[in-house]
Amino acid sequence: MAGLTNSRRRGGGAGWLAAAPLLVVTLIAFGIPTVVLVVGAFSVKGGGFGFENLSATMREPYLGALWNSVTLSAVVAILGAVLGAFLAQAVLTSRSGLLREAVLTASGVLANFGGVPLAFIWIATLGNSGVVTAALGLGSGVLYNFWGLALVYLYFSVPLMVLVIAPALDGLKPQWREAALNNGASTWQFWRHVGIPVLGPALLGGAVLLFGGAFAAYATAAAMVGASVPLVTLQIADALTGNVLIGYENIALALSLDMIVIALLVMAVYLPLQKRSSRWLA
Amino acid sequence: MAGVTWRRLTLGVAAVYFLVPLAIAVWFTVYNESRGFSLGAYGRIVSAPGFGESLLKSLLLGAAVIVLVLLLALPALLAVRLGAPGLRPVLETITTLPLIVPPITYVVGIANALRGGTDALAATPFWQTLISIQDENFPVVLVLAYVMLALPFAYRSLDTGLRAVDVRTLVEAARNLGASWPYVLFRVILPNLRSAVAGASFLSLALVMGEYTIAALMGYRTFPVWIVTVSGNDGQLSVALSVLSLGLIWLLLLTLSGAGRKSK
Amino acid sequence: MTVELRELRRSFGGTVALDGLSLTIEQGELIAFLGPSGCGKTTALRCVAGFERPDTGAVFIDGADVTRVPANRRDAGMVFQSYSLFPNLNVRDNVAFGLRVRRRSADERHSRAAELLELVGLGGFGERYPHQLSGGQQQRVALARALALQPKVLLLDEPLSALDAKVRVNLREEIRRLQLELGITTIFVTHDQEEALSVADRVAVLKSGRLEQVAPPAEVYDRPATPFVAEFVGTMNHLPGRVSGETVEVFGQTLPLDGTAPGAEVDVLVRPEAVRVTPSGDGRGFILASSFRGSIARLRVQLDGGGEVLADVPGHEAVRLAPGLKVDVTLVERPVLTAPRTAVAAPVEPVG
């Protein structure tokens, strides 16, 4: 007995030792840049600390960019979550194994498809000299605005939602629906009282992931809209490459801190929800 | 019936939205009004300057990231199951960091740290180290950054794989039969994790082959960065590169699911 | 409130689940549908619940044809095999779900739920969530939910098969007590013959979508209508026998035939409790193994001519009849069933 507890304890020590390389690398590769970022965001011109950089990000033109980023991400998250859930349900209930397999594989590919290549494909389709633009006589500038960006972001967000929500939809037990019918409920009443509440955490969790993806996206927007739709990621890149007003050298750091705080708030919603969902759908 | 109608409508709209741009992109790369049908755009990819060099660099980075990710994540994950469950929340936190810190803010942090570090350490031997990890041909900084970004995916994949294997019982059974620790690790545990390890590797590789923001802003010409710089004003070439990178993701995913299926 | 199944037929793709099943379940009766998996017992139940529609045939509840009535407008409360409680609702709201759908007041819902939970022995559990309950408790809640709308028929679809042995026995007695108390017509689907025999007024044995026998438990056990029933319900020894006229010769004994024999050379079907084992130095076999089960001990006797026989003896004789002992085997004198000759003295354990 003594030997067992002894080896347990030793196992614990060895365990932390086995994890040490990971912890050290994380500390260096993530810890240092983060500390530098936070310290820099609060460092003011001429030495010392203050809120000057952060308060600058709360004024134009930066505030507008922040607001654009948040609203664009929210729109993509909500639309993507709803459309992705409908698409997943349509595919999963179609009883065609082939369709299911094909859509899930395609979703895996498209959810990982982003950056500049995504922008190129949409420019070829709906850009000023795009094929669909010409065919439908849409005129220029269809794609290069807020809603054009949303349309393009949905191209990877909806598939990501399909991937996230499919296991949850699979986890909806057929007995629940039958038990509800057996108790006199209509299909709509089943969804209202059971289906949607049970899926709720997974839906919201998915929406949070989509928000994060759209919020962090940079390359697609840079290739598509340049400066015509100001986004916080574009502003940070500008500032980082030296394209910044005198006295605003640390603005990239402050904007980055803003982004991290927003992402933290969103994640704070996500994590507890995910726990609840996995308990229900286990 | 109503159920069939909404399903058809949903699938129809999705098919148009997802397939039309793809079809147009492919058409655009092979057909030109003046020259007609030609695969020239794809030929130009291979002959474009820097193709082999940047592809090789990205593959090299990918290999380094895979090795490092596995070396860091596997021992930690095994430790969680073999007697240090207190590690789990720590690992969970580490692997959610990249979700909270977007790549663009991460690159801001890295760039500032490097600049600050280079200034502060200018007179010490560490300066040389700092310079060498930023080597254009094999940027160690980029490897470290990608390792951090790949960790969440690798961690989930390995964790799922380990869940299917009762590691503790396997280890105890093997030890009881007289196996040494290295034998247990390489001949007992790893073979049971083959598909999870393959999954983690392919996800890491996919990340390296697709990441643009960090590499571009730090000035490294990896394959995704090369794609953007080389397309320039050649519309057909740029779309052909997009189709190619989509195909690359598809290929990686296919290999991934193939590796997962083989072990079952 | 009788339930009548009339000539139900249903096939899924190529497999026939129901092949002309006809059966009438009387008012207040608990009938068990018993059979191996794939015999159609669950499909029959789901036809009554309205989750399946028979290809042909009809279901009558209380004299009314309900074949085309949708599931949410039938008067039949159902308990599923497992995990059917709504995970997002607490126990009280699960039980009161049907009342909520019918827009009853909160007061009525709460008092009815409390009453039903009291009935199934879970008073005070109303605020708990399904994941905080044991499997047995979950099934009690499911039972309360099925009874909440005071249905004409109670349908139980293998409600105990996911539970531990001890809980299973307790709960099946509880279900029977409740069913008698409420006098509700009940169909209990199970693949466990012991369960069916112990709770039902009548047992309907199904095979390949057809009714093999429907009779009170004792009759199904003692006078199985077909060899299939004989083997599915309880344990049977197959002993080689030779038919002559109205009798069959087996182990040197001549026993009267029950029903007609399928030929001259037959298997005689004998229950282990109808086999007597006595120590004898020049007996025809020896005890191979003995498993003590409390009130009885089941012996495996190896016969000298090859083959084995299972015999149940009183538990207190287990010490005397130890493995290795030379014994003689005799059969209780009573009419016996026969089946076409298969193997030499191969006892068949029940399925499930």
UniProtKB/TrEMBL annotation, chain A:
Domain ABC transmembrane type-1 residues, every copy: 66-270
Principal localisation: membrane
Membrane-spanning ranges: 16-42, 62-90, 102-124, 144-169, 202-231, 251-273
GO cellular component, one term: plasma membrane
InterPro entries named among the record's database cross-references: MetI-like, MetI-like_sf
Record flagged with keyword Ribonucleoprotein: no
Cited PROSITE patterns: ABC_TM1
Listed SUPFAM superfamilies: MetI-like
Keyword Membrane: yes
Membrane topology classification: Multi-pass membrane protein
GO BP of this protein: transmembrane transport
Compartments, as annotated in UniProt: Cell membrane
Keyword set, alphabetical order: Cell membrane, Membrane, Transmembrane, Transmembrane helix, Transport
Coiled coil regions, renumbered to chain: none
Family label: Belongs to the binding-protein-dependent transport system permease family. CysTW subfamily.
The protein, known as: ABC transporter permease subunit
UniProt source species: Herbidospora solisilvae
UniProtKB/TrEMBL annotation, chain B:
GO cellular component, one term: plasma membrane
Membrane topology: Multi-pass membrane protein
Pfam family, one: BPD_transp_1
Residues in ABC transmembrane type-1 domain copies: 55-256
Keyword Cell wall biogenesis/degradation among UniProt keywords: no
Entry-linked SUPFAM superfamilies: MetI-like
Keywords assigned by UniProt, alphabetized: Cell inner membrane, Cell membrane, Membrane, Transmembrane, Transmembrane helix, Transport
Superkingdom, natural source: Bacteria
Listed GO biological process terms: transmembrane transport
CDD domains: TM_PBP2
Classification via PROSITE patterns: ABC_TM1 (PS50928)
Entry's localization field: Cell inner membrane; Cell membrane
Membrane spanning stretches: 9-30, 59-84, 96-117, 137-155, 196-217, 237-256
Gene3D superfamilies for the chain: MetI-like
InterPro entries to which the protein is assigned, alphabetical: MetI-like (IPR000515), MetI-like_sf (IPR035906)
Record family assignment: Belongs to the binding-protein-dependent transport system permease family.
Protein name, as recorded: ABC transporter permease subunit
Organism: Herbidospora solisilvae
Automatic annotation (TrEMBL), chain C:
Record bears the keyword ATP-binding: yes
Record keywords, A-Z: ATP-binding, Nucleotide-binding, Transport
Organism superkingdom: Bacteria
Entries under InterPro entries matching the protein: AAA+_ATPase, ABC_SmlMolc_Importer, ABC_transporter-like_ATP-bd, ABC_transporter-like_CS, Mo/tungstate-bd_C_term_dom, P-loop_NTPase, Transp-assoc_OB_typ2
Location of the ABC transporter domain: 3-233
EC nos: 7.6.2.9
Gene Ontology molecular function, alphabetical: ABC-type quaternary ammonium compound transporting activity; ATP binding; ATP hydrolysis activity
GO cellular component terms listed in the entry, alphabetical order: ATP-binding cassette (ABC) transporter complex
Protein name: ABC-type quaternary amine transporter
Species name: Herbidospora solisilvae
